[in-house]
Amino acid sequence: MAGSSLLVLIDDIATVLDDVSVMTKVAAKKTAGVLGDDLALNAQQVTGVRAEREIPVVWAVAKGSFVNKLILVPAALLISAFIPWAVTPLLMIGGAFLCFEGFEKLAHKFLHSKAQDQAEHAALVEAVADPDVDLVAFEQTKIKGAIRTDFILSAEIIAITLGTVAAAPLSQQIIVLSGIAIVMTIGVYGLVAGIVKLDDLGLWLTQKASRVAQVLGNGILRAAPYMMKSLSVIGTAAMFLVGGGILVHGVAPLHHAIEAFSEGRGGALTGPCSMAGWGLLRGRQFWRWWLLLARSGEP
């Protein structure tokens, strides 16, 4: 499940960087594009600007992640000590949000016309026509969205960790939870920073004298766009897997039913696929409720 959580985080940050990439190129009077669509084509032209924008965005989310851990670790210890029954409901609320967010991504992808997408893109370009605009500040809403996703996934991992040391003394629980929180944040966002800078690594290798380095660099530049696109798809699927898994584990009869169904089919992927399918169904339901609430609030 931790691997799925990592994919969700990478997908959320990649989404933020999509718009940052667009705005960076506009501010630099380059052809507008999105991260992942044209890394290989435009790596040379925008590598200097991207170096200024990508890492600050990842760093902004990483700092938010550290704040999340500062909130979650003490909260988890307090909840476990005084109201342990609240852990599962709180996790299920987070799981429901992940399912909703995943289905919202699908709905935006398949229900928006090409004209609507072009209009949104044009509005984004117009909004950052000023070359002096602070692009990271402009992206605060999306960065906060990535931090919110991190909060849910971090809560899940901390809750699982707490369960493994529940019988240990309080001092040991604090040490283990704090250590996991620090290692997880540094590891995850270090990996994310490496992924989003693959294009710069490829460009650097192409400028080396070694023929092997040049071939490797060109290969990275060609592969990077496809990898970013695949991460977006896999990350969205992971939202349903993680969110659906949380919802399933929170309802014992449903969990047992899926376990029995999976054992009867004998496939290692049957259980995860069933949980992801349940997450997709719940996400659709939550999304429809959200639409009804939004429409009821209209004048």
From TrEMBL:
GO cellular component, one term: plasma membrane
Coiled coil regions, renumbered to chain: none
Transmembrane stretches, start-end: 71-100, 151-168, 174-196, 231-252
InterPro entries, sorted: YedI (IPR008526)
Keywords of the record: Membrane, Transmembrane, Transmembrane helix
UniProt protein name: Membrane protein
